[in-house]
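Thread: Newbie trying to understand structure tokens

Hi all, I'm a second-year student working on a class project, and my supervisor (Dr. K.) asked me to get a predicted structure for one chain before our next meeting. I've only ever worked with sequences, so writing a 3D structure as a token string is new to me. If someone could post the tokens and maybe explain what I'm looking at, I'd be very grateful. Here's the chain:
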Amino acid sequence: MTADRPPFRDPALPVDARVADLLGRLAPAERLALLHQFAPGVERLGLAAFRTGQEALHGVAWMGPATVFPQAVGLGASWHPELVRRVGEAVSREARAMRAKDGRVGLNVWAPTVNLLRNPLWGRGEEGYSEDPALTSALAVAFTRGLRGDHPVYWRTAPVLKHWLAHNNETARDTSSASVRPRVLHEYDLPAFRGAVEAGTAAGVMPAYNLVNGRPNHLSPYLESELRTWTDRELLVCSDAGAPSNLADSQAYFDGHEEAVAAALRAGVDSFTDHGTDPSVILGRLERALERGLIGQEDVDRAVRRQLTVRFALGEFDPELDPYAQESAYDTAGHRELAREAAEAALVLLRNEPDADGAPLLPLAAGGRVAVVGLLADAAKLDWYSGALLHRSTPLDGIRERFGADRVDFAEGVDRIRLRTADGRALRVPEAAGEEPGREAEVALDPALLAGRTDLPPLTADAEGTVLDLIDWGDGVLTLRAPGGRYLSVAGDGLLRASADEPGGWVVQETFRFEAHGDGHLLLHLGTGGYVSVAADSVKVAADRGSAGIFTVETVERGEEAVARAAAGADAVIVVAGNDPHVNGRETEDRATLALPPHQDRLWRAAHAANPRTALVLVSSYPYAVPDAAAALPALLWTAHGGQAAGTALARVLAGDVSPAGRLPQTWYGSDADLPDLFDYDVIGGRQTYLYFDGTPLFPFGHGLTYTTFGYRELTAALDGEEVRVSCAVANTGAVASDEVVQLYVRAVAPSVPRPHRALVAHERIHLAPGATATLTFVVPLSALAYWDVAHGRWTVEPGAYEFQAGPSSADPRRTVRVELPGEAPGPRPVLEAGIEAAGYDEQTGTVIVDRSRISGDAVAPADPAAPGTLLFRACDFGDGVTELAVTAAGAGEVTFYAGTAPVPLARVTVGPTDGPYAHVLAGAPCHVRGVTDLRVELRGPVRLAHVGFSG
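---
Reply by user tm_fold:
Sure, no problem. This is what the structure looks like when written as tokens:
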């Protein structure tokens, strides 16, 4: 090559050679600088500045207006991979088009989120697709394929999967540890990530904030031992924001930040997202780590090589060959149509029972009068990872447009109140001098940095005051809204203003709570933790209770009164209830309950009492427990927040223009009592999700009705080498054209270990006209029937009978067929060969898995050192017998061994105290046991058992 065109500029060379050439031209300091999220340019090489990270979960986010598609959990409810692929394609095309006008828009997109929706109380459930790993993986492959594009060399965008690994709690999210046993790791959590990586559609992953088995995810050994073994391509690992600092700060996993960043880099983190746009702090830590020998130049080079590989794939160095360089598709008619199609596909009809005349309430009869009521009836809510709306359609908008505004009545159902002070005055919202742009007009790479508005006059108090709209979102969390539609909010100066278009922000400044105080209430501002007080010329938030104002609530109108009036005069009532994605369940905040907030519960009851022809539409980021509504109301629907076309889509479904066909992507439980502890990640032992739940759900995984009926016929299954070929005929036996989601499940009939009640192995969403029939064939690899055999540390397909079930939901198998798999059953645990890894238990009570070292390996400890923990290892083969055992353990305590259910111990070993949690010692004791028997191990005290060996 010539000097003007060095090898890294030559597209004829292999990418690895081009990366190596460019890497070699970078000085050590220039290489190090690339490790921060905001990497500077290198002018002498023509290397542009680059940043990792562009949020794009269901549309380009944080960069101003863009097409907004349904939330990820709504895309999950579509059960439609091809639709999801097209959504991903539209998002990536808009990212390219927006970048052409604003260089701050990034092409390394941080999406999708593939964390499984194990517990519906998780605050970020809206970001995931499903509780099922197979469905999540299928949709993740589809979305990333759309984001990536289909060119063999160049990528339209480079998607990063979030959040590695086993991350389902916002409470103590940066300090809590998920205890994940090997079976759960391999059968549940890892498969959600694996599909997109193996398909070549994911550029990398982002580790989660939490710890797994006592070790921060930013040091996860599975990045190397699992993730990077699934592909021969380079993968980019981007840290989550601030997580590198957490290693030494909130997690205190290391004494110093230099040790922390060095460990993260060695573990496989390639890009450090920390301290915003200022790279100096992280780079300083990395420089000192280099000087101290904690890392070497080879560690830096490895990370830089992975980053450069992504940049080459994005066409940065070949603009003339990049097929996506001139992309301009933004807010196109096709994207608007796709947003509506996705919102329709995401709607789930949960219930639609016939009335006394024998006809279901939905679709609504033509020509009638419709009452649209509820707190979300005229709302188009956005979440933290939404872009600003280009178009807006609320349920009320859509229904008025479809049915005619003159035939639609509306009542929001807010409580209309005045807040009076102790001296009898009431809070007043002064009129603003003129309309000013709201928060939605602002753009920031990090919207958490947007400040509250101070350009509007603060509240005052006078004799008359202002009637405010009060909404109780549950758990006592309130919002207060002025007549002009703006919410009361608090900015940095502490003054209370009607200034927010919607509740929002990293710290929501629009939520309050009443605290009883004598005959009145204090008004707590949740964003600051201060109390509202009234001064002579303004209303502000005081830091302490002593300065707080005392308020009485003067109710002007109860919301249910307005709802009942509207409902009474209608032929049908649509109650729209649900959540605000910034309140009571969001990033940083888990939900407290599955229950519908009392305010909204009162509204649907009032509507139903006034008019029995009432349907409840739940618009929410997560499931609700609504057993009374499910029993009393003739119709019930659910949709996630559906983006810009949500109202139009809902109206079309209510009118019967399109049949609903969405399916639940997670189980809807009947009550909080059905849920495990939020921090219990053992879906097998804790009997969680549809896979293992032993109770009766309110609505099962995969449930969803249509406006027609389908018949399932001729289910066949045949073993063909390493696959099972399953065929099923499905017919539309009703009078309405509709989609159907054909779901195929499998269960082991007589497993030797706990297996799922049934597990999804394939599905397809099809469209059938009335009377039409389709025959579907699914090819199920035998690996889909395997389980992780902890006794031998490998995947095992157990021989025996397997039952394939086809139907429209997990709880409604219409056809069943059995297949007999030949083979040799897995033998007993070969303890004489390699002993027993403590974390490889079959069952446990009262224990947690902890880190054996800061780098890799697991140990097991009592969850509470004051209480014993027990491990059970089934069918241990001691052969002709052993005479001694030796435990590898740290800490201090006793380890006691029992054979089977025998009450007399086989052996007891006292451990430590050792010099720290990682200072493992070998301690032995006589032990006489032979043949095959279960082994029960009891742990007492703060002991950390890693391994047990046998001899003699």
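A couple of things are worth pointing out once you decode it. The mean pLDDT is 96. The chain is about 20% helix and 30% strand. Feel free to ask follow-ups in this thread.
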